Amino acid sequence: MDQIVEHLPSLRRYARALTGNAWAADDLVQDTLERACRKWLLWRAGSDLRAWLFTLMHHLYLNQQRSASSLPLLDIEAVQDSLQAPAPASDDAIDLDRCLQRLPSDQRAVLLLVTLEDMDYAQTARVLQIPVGTVMSRLSRARARLRELMHAPANTARSAPDNGPPSLRRMK
């Protein structure tokens, strides 16, 4: 179990990039660690622990996305006063984060694992349980789309993500 500790920074980094939210990322990492502890006997000693942990995290993230689509909508005016302003960040970092969030989730996952987590194509394929060729094509599409979004006018890059309905909507 001590082997897991060395992977915590990369798990948190990947979770933060997936969710776009520090609190949601912490929850995802915690859920991943809980599942890893429960399923520890299923991990085969000698196999890639890092890839196994990332696979657990990816599946948990997908499950959370599926269940989030069935959550009831909140009245934005009721929660608006309790929201805090985000910490200031550079415009480029904000634009990159928003552009990453606009990528389809399958492309974003591949891009983050290969670039941010420095996994090779075979490891990424194992984590996402897809063929290596699919990893390569999704990565190519993700890079091209990210390039488009980063060079698009600011209002295009700053619009809402294409990954489904917004979590908050104004209700009358």
UniProtKB/TrEMBL annotation:
InterPro entries: PhyR_sigma2, RNA_pol_sigma-70-like, RNA_pol_sigma-70_dom, RNA_pol_sigma70_r4_t2, RNA_pol_sigma_r2, RNA_pol_sigma_r3/r4-like, WH-like_DNA-bd_sf. Residues 150-172 are annotated as: Disordered. Residues 95-146 form the RNA polymerase sigma factor 70 region 4 type domain. Residues 4-58 form the PhyR sigma2 domain. Keywords: Sigma factor, Transcription, Transcription regulation. One of its GO terms (molecular function) is sigma factor activity. Coiled coil: none annotated. GO terms for biological process: DNA-templated transcription initiation. The keyword Phosphoprotein does not apply. Belongs to the sigma-70 factor family. ECF subfamily. This is RNA polymerase sigma-70 factor, ECF subfamily. It comes from Paracidovorax valerianellae.
